[in-house]
Design brief:
Strand order of the largest sheet of chain B: 1-2
Structural class of chain B: mainly alpha
Order of helices and strands of chain A: EEEEEHHEEEEEEEEEEEEEEEE
Biased composition (Low complexity) (chain B): 51-62
Protein name (chain B): VPS35 endosomal protein-sorting factor-like
Main location (chain B): other
Subcellular location (chain B): Endosome
Shape of chain A: elongated
Distance between the termini of chain B: 147 Å
Helix content of chain B: 55-70%
Shape of chain B: rod-shaped
Strand content of chain B: under 5%
Helix content of chain A: under 10%
Keywords (chain B): Endosome, Protein transport, Transport
Number of strands of chain A: 21
Largest interface: A-B, 38 and 40 residues
Largest sheet of chain A: 6 strands, mixed
Oligomer: heterodimer
Distance between the termini of chain A: 50 Å
Number of strands of chain B: 4
Radius of gyration of chain B: 48 Å
Chain lengths: 297, 876
Amino acid sequence: MSVTLDIRLKRANKVYHEGEAVTGVIVLVCKEPLQHHGISLSMEGLVNLQLSSKSVGVFEAFYNSVKPIQLISSNIEVAKAGKIPGGKTEIPFEFPLQTKGNKVLYETYHGVFVNIQYTLRCDMKRSLLAKDLSRNCEFIVHCQPQKAKVAPTPVNFTITPDTLQNIRERSALPKFLIRGHLDATNCVISQPLTGELVVENSDVPIKSIELQLVRVETCGCAEGYARDATEIQNIQIAEGDICHGLSIPIYMVFPRLFTCPTLETTNFKVEFEVNIVIVLHDDHLITENFPLKLCRV
Amino acid sequence: FYLERSRGRNYEAELQRCHPEVALVEFGDYHPLKPIMVTDTKTRRGARKGSTSSSSSSSSSVPPDPLSSMLDGTDPLSMFAAASASETPAMSHSRREKEEEAVGPDFEPWSSKRGEILARFTTTEKLSIVTAVVSVGKAPSPGSSAVSEKVRTRLEELDDLEEGSQRELLNLSQQDYANRIEELNQSLKEAWASDQKVKALKIVIQCSKLLSDTSVIQFYPSKFVLITDILDTFGRLVYDRIWTMCSDPRPLPDSFTVEDVNDTAKETCLNWFFKIASIRELLPRLYVEAAILKCNRFLNKSGIQETLPRLTAMIRGIGDPLVAAYARAYLCRVGMEVAPHLKDSLNRNFFDLLGTFRQISGESVRNQLVLQRVEVPEYLTLYSPAISWILQCIAYRAPEDYINCAEIWVEFTCRHFTKREVNTVLADIIKHMTPDRAFEDAYPQLQSVIRKILTYFHDFSVLFSMERFLPFLDMFQKDSVRVEVCRSIMEVFIKHQVELTRDPVILNAMLHICKTMHDSVNALTLEDEKRSLALLIIGFIRMVSFGRDFEQQLSFCVEARATFCNLEPVLVQLIHTVNQLAMETRRVMGGNHSRKTAAFVRACAAYSFITIPSLSSIFSRLSLYLLSGQVALANQCLSQADAFLKAAVSILPEVPRSISVEGKLRSSESFLLDFINNFLATLLVVPDHPEHGVLYLVRGLLNMVQDYTWEDNSDAKVRVYISALPLLAAMSQETYLYSIPKVDSNETLYGGDPKFLSEINKLCETLIGQILDHLKALGRDEKVAAGSRLIRTSGLTRRQGAVAFSLFGVLLAHGDLRNNKLSQLAVNLWNLSHKHGYCETRISVRTLESIKHQAQQPNMTHLSDTVQRLTLQSRT
């Protein structure tokens, strides 16, 4: 006797904001009538924090103390114990997305050491002989757009051997002059990161120019913290010995789920940076780092 | 793993495959060797419409037989039939046509270029291909609905593909390579059909990556063709998939807007764009996004408009100029397919291409060429398909920009290349300016093109051997412009064509051009305009010579007469040409015509004889009759000569008293007198017609003169009589002053027959009698006028004096003054002319001196008697 249980959200993109109602249907499909002991639906929002392995040694004591932070949790009964008729049954539901007290609904974010995730869970209790059925469905929370307007401030940069830090032998470096700008470092998350870059000259041909989007996640409390920077994505904007003096667009779409508005709480931080990485043909690697501030408008 | 599952049925996929839009899988499936199929798409489309309107989804893909819809869903096998039938090329063809409708049939489609490129850019070198071993069967379990999980798996798979297990296939021949690409194309379609969208994307990314590899550079253009076929397929699959998602309850119309697209479809579409935006490498990211450019239609109105410039700028990041050029070509290609009206990006692409052109001579390229042992000229040809495609896109329906460029380019071409290249430019201009009669707005530019060509091409045989030159002229459809263009060509021709020509190419073209000018003449054309057109046409006719081939020359004149019948000066010229032809024939034959040449000169005479009457100007007719008569005579065509002269005489009465000369009415008298004097001089050598009386033509002429209504108060008639006297005197000589070789004049015919001489004398007497009557009448009228005290009456005596003096002069020169009567007449005339003192003393004195001088000649002594009787009246 097979039965499938599914949760279908009304919105195709599954994106909801605080104060809205998460609506949808629970879909049950079974060939024959089905006996059950009650169907319930729960909503949960959690922040999961994890320490990186390299931090574990240092904060071993602290490690265990990192517990998930609950943002929202509620439960409703969808159906009392009874019988579902054979065929397809759709049970509509509506869940208000409302926090209790002064808690804030952070935006959904899938990171490495920080995960902010919202799920709907539907449980169907059944008799002892049959297994309980359960189905999870993630939905996405976008935080309310910030009120203040974002005025983009362009950031100019010039990269030459002289502007570099962390180099062993400055004299061994070939000569180059790379200029450019980012249209803004306080970025609207739904809009791409843009700018321009010009290789004015370079003794050694360019091999590749890349934009590396980096997440900087900080977990910690009063006793100490762990801060880890990891790559989200790397986008190549130039390949090969590009024409000198010709501006090359800097353009990167912020990936959904893997980015969120820059977040700073007492327990954790999620920040983003972009590196402009220039690889020369002799495999010299030149990196220019720009901290970003993401927001949603 | 997958094989085990394969017994299961993916109904959704099957359903999609059955759907007509998804059936288009085959569309991009070109094999380089596959012939291009032409099918009657109209019928196909009609059939398709019919079938889509039927209710069941399974029948919507039934092949284009409208009857087959009868089987709708009734036959369990029909689904399979439908699935396979939908893959016939005919179906995809109809779709192809539909897509190209966006640009119109005047845009040469990519499909017609690709075969050419594949055939042209080949290599015998070994190729290599780097592919990831595409792992099979990692289809996401349908049960997992957690977004994060799903997305993560997919991204992991993407990473897999990008960095994962790669395999390099080495030593592939060109055919192996093409086969391998074709395999990838197949696996793309298979992956798609089995709902492995991520795998499909991986394949496309992998293929696009191959385009950054420029080893075996000679093959690159062909590689581009093969790989972009796959991209096209992919673009269509994605588009059709999303389109299908919106087809419930009713298929989207072709002109759908964002509002017609449901959220699920939008979300799917957005997902694709996000996925593509995260592709690590530049080239695949660019190509794949370009491939699904059309999908922007599902998301927002301005998507395509915003994406094209962005992708265009993105190409600047491609370091290899060849790779970049082809990326531009691809972007222009999809841009044209989706939004041909967005010209800015096309232009931007072209200018960026020019901007990066210096890279071609850069070190990176040089090193690469050295490494691959490819010469620069060969390397440069690799760009031609890409650049030509980009230019074709830019030039499409951009007549204004186009023609402004073409106008400049043609000069460059004229200056540095040969007619072949210029012809190509002309052909291209015609191609661009013909649709929608775009040339109508570009006459100044088109005229300038002609002017430039004429500046550089003076050899008309070269000019007209450009086969697109005359078709080019056909674009000038506004009469005034057309004539102006023809005129400018003619002016250059007349100025620069030095040698006579019989080149049929020139003749045909020039006849065409002259005819155009001639045909522009209508009732409203100004005289000046007609005259100048006629002059140009005459200029052409004078340059035509068939050398010794006189008959062809004559038939040219026959043709020209028919063509230019409305321009009288041209006809006049043609008659002159034919007369000249007859004389040339005579010269060639040394005056002795053979039977054949005799017939030919008679044909020439006939030509003139039937052409002259069509002229409206009476003096043209008269002088041409006379001239043609002289020519006929010179060619021993006696009856023809007779006919000409008779015709001239017979039209004399038609001569009006006044004619228009340069717009002013003037008396025709002096012209007429000139003509008659000329005519009389000819009559000396014209033998009498055996069937008519003696001096038939002279009498005829004099009769006409007598009957002609001369101006009042004019002495013209007697002046003719006076002029006739020397002729008659000359005719009575034993040996004529001049004669025509091979033509017997009256001197021979009559041999000084006394009857003939007496006829002449009678005629002379009659004429002198008439003249004397006239003199008397003048004197009488003078008296009447004086009696009535009319003012200005002295005119009559002055005229009397002048006529008398003229007659005196003729008698002195031609008369035999030993005859007393005649001598007395002469003295009387002298006195009459001096009676009223109107004679100029100087002339009188010189006349006397001349007579005295003559009197010293032998046989002239009698003149000294006469001179004694001529007295000079002093005017004091």
